[in-house]
Amino acid sequence: MTVLPSALDTGGPDYLANREAMLARLADLETEHAKALAGGGAKYVERHRERGKLLARERIELLLDPDTPFLELSPLAAWGSDYAVGASLVTGIGVVEGVECVITANDPTVRGGASNPWSLRKALRANDIALANRLPCVSLVESGGADLPSQKEIFIPGGAVFRDLTRLSAAGIPTVAVVFGNSTAGGAYVPGMSDHVIMVKERAKVFLGGPPLVKMATGEESDDESLGGAEMHARVSGLADHFAVDERDALRQARRVVARLNHRKAHPDPPRAQPPAYDDEELLGIVPGDLKIPFDPREVIARLVDGSDFDEFKPLYGTSLTTGWAALHGYPVGILANAQGVLFSAESQKAAQFIQLANQRDIPLLFLHNTTGYMVGREYEQGGIIKHGAMMINAVSNSRVPHLSVLMGASYGAGHYGMCGRAYDPRFLFAWPSAKSAVMGPQQLAGVLSIVARQSAAAKGRPYDDDADAALRAMVEQQIESESLPMFLSGRLYDDGVIDPRDTRTVLGLCLSAIHTAPFEGARGGFGVFRM
Ligand code: COA
Predict the structure, then answer these.
(1) Spatial distance between the Cα atoms of 349 and 393, rounded to a whole number of angstroms
(2) Angle formed by the axes of helices 442-459 and 466-484, nearest 10°
(3) Contact 94/68 with Cβ under 8 angstroms?
(4) Domain made up of 25-259: CATH architecture
(5) Which of 37, 147, 295, 411 is deepest in the core (most CB within 10 A)?
């Protein structure tokens, strides 16, 4: 074993200051998570309960095996938008009858559970996760369909939700719909496209058009039950496979359906793993409040991996990127972690080689981000930094082993891409509250804008207003800073959630377990042309 040593001084002023800064950010995060949990607010939650209904998260809890975790995804979706935090949809991964499933649940306390543009993104992301990892998909349905005022943003792309359901089915990935309430118009295609359908008596309403629309269209008089009630669908139309007497019965029946899926994981579960040799609590004090101060990612790795056991690859070469092999909850992983922030040519080449090795060995990769990007400047351009950065991006793009990304600190510029940012399809991507991501740092961006404006004024022979420039710089800096923060980025679904650093090992363990449901094989070739 190669147990990592630790130089973390947990009584020192730096550690204590870092920890305090992280705890303050976690408190802010908790406030925002509480908004998602509150759904549509007390009035709508109360009304929902008075109707004898369970809340979205209560439905999920009853569906899951007792005392098993639920990895909720993107709880901050829609943060910073005009829509409620959480986007009227709960999504995540949980265990039902021993089977890991993707679960989605409409939150009917938020605008009748209607889908807005962020709910749509969240639903599509859940489908992607189900498909990539071959996880059965259980939809807990009760929704007013499209959020009508924003229909232009969702109607056309929204068709993908139903397309995905049938593609999952075609790929042999089971889909189950449990209908608790409204599932009308387009929403009717959620049960329509699912493999297994359960409907709740006198609650489910599944029709293409409700009584008023039918009256308008054909003049026919009808009612909810005869058009789309559970009893009608179970006895007459055949859309419902299972008739549930109430919500609890529906969830019980959903568990029975999953128990009979005969869904098997592609990889056996690993043996019980050793915990890290250091306390995960100490993850709070590693990342400095000021991201300009570097930190040693080995201190993080030592608190994430089994037994803190890490075999470093090329430790003396390209030292600004730490690479090496470890196991996490028993699953082998290759880790790439930024050390000093900047990626130089050597780091880029080392990364490309390491990624190729992981592909040869079928080992998933974990990217721990804290990078300001690829090095700029004459010496580095002449040394071929573009070629070498491109090598790393080529390797990441064409790698076929599953990738996991965690944004610990900075994730700027093309460094975000090389380290498998969102556009590079990591199976999962999480951010710590300390993370920041943007095309470049706010000060640098404001400074670049100012230089460009000054040059433009000079070219036109106009005087340059220095006071206005200072005000503009301050404004831009503030704007970019706020747009780089994890809550803002999470609101836009650019990650799968902002997590407490102390939960990282558990979260990654759940992800690795989900990943090992599907078979995977590394790329033995098939990379693009590496520029040498
Ligand atoms: N788009 C936007 N807002 C919607 C909505 C939708 N599709 N459905 C409901 N809302 C809003 C309501 O306007 C209401 O807002 P308010 O409280 O600020 O007045 C809030 O959500 C709750 O709706 P309410 O009707 O009071 O809740 P309910 O639980 O009694 O009924 C529905 C829920 C979904 C059955 C009902 O609102 C409905 O039929 N909505 C329209 C459904 C529809 O036709 N959708 C288009 C399908 S493509």
Answers:
(1) 10
(2) 150
(3) yes
(4) Alpha-Beta Complex (3.90)
(5) 411
Check whether 245 has a pLDDT greater than 90: yes
Return phi, psi of residue 277, to 5°. -80, -10
- Calculate the CA 373 to chain-centre distance: 22
First to last CA, the chain: 36
Kindly report the number of other CB atoms within 10 A of residue 316's CB atom: 6
Query: Per-residue pLDDT averaged across 308-336, rounded?
Result: 98
DSSP state of 281: G
Per residue in 248-277, pLDDT (tens digit) is 999 999 999 999 999 999 999 999 999 999
Question: Could you tell me which CATH number the domain at 280-439+485-515 has?
Answer: 3.90.226.10
Residue 205 backbone phi and psi in degrees, to 5: -135, 100
Question: Is there a contact between 500 and 22 (Cβ–Cβ < 8 Å)?
Answer: no
Kindly report, residue by residue over 119-169, the tens digit of the pLDDT. 999 999 999 999 999 999 999 999 999 999 999 999 999 999 999 999 999
Domain boundaries, the chain: 25-259, 280-439+485-515, 442-483
Q: How far is CA 129 from CA 84, 96, 122, 310, 515, in A?
A: 23, 17, 11, 29, 9
How does strand 403-412 pair with strand 428-431? Answer: parallel
**Nearest alpha carbon, ligand 1 atom 38:** 144
Q: Which ligand 1 atom lies nearest to the CA of residue 146?
A: 48
Ligand 1 site, residue 106, Cβ cutoff 6 A? no
Give yes or no for residue 241 CB within 6 A of ligand 1. Answer: no
pLDDT attached to residue 187: 87
pLDDT exceeds 90 at position 324: yes
Closest C-alpha to 437, from 458, 452, 415: 415
Q: Which residues contact 57 (CB under 8 A, 6 or more apart)?
A: 37, 90, 105
Q: How far is the CA of 114 from the centre of ligand 1 (A)?
A: 7
- Helix (H) / strand (E) element for 410: namely strand 403-412
pLDDT of residue 104 exceeding 90, the answer is yes
List the helix and strand counts (H, then E) for the chain.
Answer: 19, 16
Do 25-259 and 280-439+485-515 fold alike per CATH? Answer: yes
Spatial separation of the C-alpha atoms in residues 183 and 174, rounded to whole Å:
20
| CA 76 – CA 97 distance, rounded (Å) | 28
In the block, tokens 């265990």 appear at 95
Separation of CA 157 from chain center: 20
| Chain-centroid distance, C-alpha 127 | 12
Return the residue matching tokens 């340059």: 464
pTM of the full predicted structure?
0.95
Per-residue burial over 441-480, b = 16 or more CB atoms within 10 Å of its CB, e = otherwise: bbebbbeebbeebeeeeeeeeeeeeeeebeeebeebbeeb
Q: Which ligand 1 atom lies nearest to the CA of residue 108?
A: 29
Atom of ligand 1 nearest to the CA of 148: 1
- Pairing mode, if any, of strands 99-106 and 89-96? antiparallel
